[in-house]
Amino acid sequence: MEWMALGTLEEIPARGGRYVETPLGEIAVLRNENDEVFAVSNQCPHRGGPLSEGFVSGKLVFCPLHNWQIDLEKGEAVAPDSGCVKRFPIRMEGGQIWLGLQEITP
Amino acid sequence: MHITVPRKPRLVVVGNGMAGIRAVEELLKMAPDLYEISVFGAEPHPNYNRILLTPVLAGEMTLEETILNPLEWYAEHGIQLFTGNPVTRIDRVKRQVITADGKATPYDRLLLATGAAAAMAPVPGNHLPGVLSYRDMADVEALTKSSALGGQAVVIGGGLLGLEVAHGLRARGMGVTVIHRRAWPLDKQLDQRGGVLLQKAMEARGVRFLLGKETAEILGTTHVTGLRFSDGTEIPADVLVMTIGIKPRIELAQAAGLQCETGILVNDTLQTYDPRIYAVGECVQHRGQTYGLVAPLFEQAKVAANHLAEYGRMRYQGSVTSTKLKVTGIELFSAGNFTGGEDCEEVTLLDGSQGVYKKVILQENRVVGGLLYGDTSIGPWLFQLMRDGTDVSAFRDNIVFGETHLGDAGHSGENQAARLPDNAEICGCNGVAKGSIVKAIREQGLFTLDDVRKCTKASASCGSCTGLVEQLLSSTLGGFYDSTPKKKALCGCTELSHQEVRDAIVKEKLLSVRQVFAYLEWRHPAGCATCRPAVNYYVRTAWPMEGLDDPQSRFINERAHANIQKDGTYSVIPRIYGGVTSPAELKRIAEVAERHHVPMVKFTGGQRLDLLGVKKEDLPKIWAELDMPSGHAYGKALRTVKSCVGSEFCRFGVQDSTRLAIELEKNLERMWAPHKVKLAASGCPRNCAESTIKDVGIIGVDSGWEIYVGGNGGMKVRAADLLCKVKTHEEVLEMAKAFLQMYREDAQYLERTAPWVERIGLEKIKATIVDDANTRKTLAERMDFALSQEKDPWKEAVSGRLDIHAAPIRRIPA
Ligand code: SRM
Ligand SMILES: Cc1cc2nc3c(=O)[nH]c(=O)nc-3n(C[C@H](O)[C@H](O)[C@H](O)COP(=O)(O)OP(=O)(O)OC[C@H]3O[C@@H](n4cnc5c(N)ncnc54)[C@H](O)[C@@H]3O)c2cc1C
Ligand code: SF4
Ligand code: FES
Q1: Residue B325 Cβ contacting ligand 2 at under 6 Å
Q2: Is residue A19 part of a domain?
Q3: What is the pTM of this model?
Q4: Which fold has domain B634-791?
Q5: Cβ separation of A57 and B528 shorter than 8 Å?
Q6: Is A58–B526 a contact, with Cβ atoms under 8 angstroms apart?
Q7: Are B533 and B516 in contact (CB under 8 A)?
């Protein structure tokens, strides 16, 4: 697996996100109120909304287009909606955020 | 000669509950002196309202408040009441009933109204102490006692009763888990979508769910300690409540040889197999159907009474039922077939962010069922359409919005009740039509909800039609009716209403979203998409200077200062004051658009220019090159001030509307508000700028300006109301500022001026800002102060003082 340095925690707004351009497409990097960081494909399963622009709260991101909620740990839309996003591994080390360029398979 | 006084025939009623006593009441209305009446009840209380057990359990009401017929009522009507004394046998040959104390009482007519008992799951351990049912006051007393010790309660069965008892026990401070076999709670009343919304709402109130679980055994030796499921898992329990269904109480009838199946069989006159014996209520089976809701039982009571009174006119033909859940703060309505099926069509509406879900099932253009969650205001109307079999083809696509959307009157459905026909049923429990309520209010001089309840019974049972009854009171009495507004939680993260949150922000000087969430003990420390923007707005309006704006609590549009499009690109609408531009400005805009290959340039409906399809990364560059202020076309903010040609060029113009529009826009730009705000100024009453559908609309007349407020041209058209007439531009500016500042400080987040004006009333606004020059002035000053704190966001971004995170955090090349 290839890990890429993304930058520091401070570069991602808490309770919000940024995105990375990668050979695997855009990946949203989201940070919650407890400074946990998640990486998922930057495409809402509904109609492709950019999840990096959503509200982050706990394990959830709220899509900015029509407010679907995506569970970042499961990579699934919260019922009653359904759909999946790809998840990618994140590692925090020495203040740096590292992104693993390989989809997490369940 | 020997004279005998003719003896009155004797009516004996078995069961002192809701259906039995309702039948007696109906009978007394028709034939007050016909019978000598005795009532036997197993419970120690006079007839109380079983529907209200949950408010009692939750500590919101007392037993006394649920009494429907106090002891005096029985005495007044000469009824002999025997409480705590169940009937144990019916002797049909001697025509007498025998009670637990061994006494025999003769009858000429017998009315059975024994109700139902809770069904218990046939699993080992179901008789252990601590395993309770939820049916009567004794159960509530037992539950209240056990809950005083705290601990864990487990409710088996996620139906209406199960959820109610869960809510009640939670309110008593217990940890509560609901076990349900199916994949979502209330599956008889809700489809999966609605079920999941409900589950979330209940979970937000602290109730846990274990779904798809089958109970195998109740654990414990001297008292329940837990339960084991068929999959082998276990959970602990200090109290266990069984709410898996009800079983009609038929033992007495069965033993007396009356024909029974699930319930006691009756015909359309509610007569049993023995013509002297009638039966009503949950113990009854009519045309194969048993009922567990009061509305149909009250219909039965009426018919039975009619025959007992020897009128012999009415027939009971079965009932169509609808249900509502009575858990404070959760609105739910369902009726008929709500799952659809072949040759059915569905019309649905889902607004996950507001927790609203509506679904109507149509078959051959008639409503055959429906389900409403979160907003049940159209329930009675829908139910009426369903029962009347109305052909809805004319408005089928809009049916989920309710009839308020058919004609066009009122904004927020406020006056739904006023437009219902007189025969529309308002109170489903007691079958009270609108006509009888209005008549009672007028003729008997009723002023309060309690009066209406006493007089008409409307809203006296489950209370879910209270809102409609209040609307009728206010539409019938006009300004005399004063109701305390209902409290609605801001969102699932808190129990507090918009107003309560707002008050706390002002009173406690809470200066940021985080502070508000922490101080008011938000359930989720980072809130949700509903509360974050609202609270951020409230903080900013309450503390324009000290308050901390939180970009992460703004909707994406307000964070990027541009409108996000369906493909993730953005649009750029610069401010063009009053819609008046110049050749030089147009050239510059054209060049920027060309240089950046902007896919579309479009005139907007608000007289501005829109550059559509811009990548987020390019926004700051384009803003810099345009060198124009933000048009705020993306914000809950001042949008446009539309103008017409006006007196400068137009042959009809009597006032300079273009100049006024520019002045208004310059005075109000950068104003954040609960929702977007649009203005217009027209130079004469021909009104080419469409001022009468604007939040604030100005129309020039010979003597000055007319100011209109509360108009809306969007989803729901509302013509603006005339606020006042003034002479000068300065007066217009001050009035507009005062009006908008009042709106900013008072309206709920996402409430536009149209519904706000309707909610608080034009009179109040006039009194505050037209009649009172001082308040007008202070409000306008507060607006000026707030605006002085706002900077142009595009300039801020261009100069690097505001980071909209336009570019990706990193680009990882292939
Ligand atoms: C650009 C524009 C359409 C156009 O090309 O003409 C427009 C575009 C949008 N309107 Fe509008 N409205 C535009 C004029 C209007 C008008 C006419 C007007 O302003 O004179 C109305 C009716 C007047 C009114 O508001 O009362 C209008 C009533 C709405 C509504 C319904 C509001 C309501 O209270 O019922 C929405 C939905 C909302 O705000 O929640 C809406 C929402 C939207 C949004 C922002 C939807 C969204 O959230 O993404 C659209 C953005 C499209 C995009 O991809 O950029 N738009 N919209 C117009 C911009 C005007 C401007 O110059 O600022
Ligand atoms: C918690 C709860 C909430 C509810 N909420 C709603 C609601 O929101 N809407 C709705 O429409 N319905 C609701 N219901 C259902 C409604 O209360 C019943 O449908 C209604 O009370 C049934 O009336 P009934 O007269 O047939 O039976 P009951 O009201 O149960 O009356 C029967 C009475 O007969 C007595 N009895 C039985 N056998 C004998 C005997 N042998 N001798 C003497 N007395 C006897 C019983 O003790 C009881 O007091 C609710 C029920 C419960 C338990
Ligand atoms: S009417 Fe407004 S919201 Fe609807 S598509 Fe057109 S621009 Fe978008
Ligand atoms: S694209 Fe995400 S909710 Fe529609």
Answers
A1: no
A2: yes
A3: 0.52
A4: Sulfite Reductase Hemoprotein; domain 1 (3.30.413)
A5: yes
A6: yes
A7: no
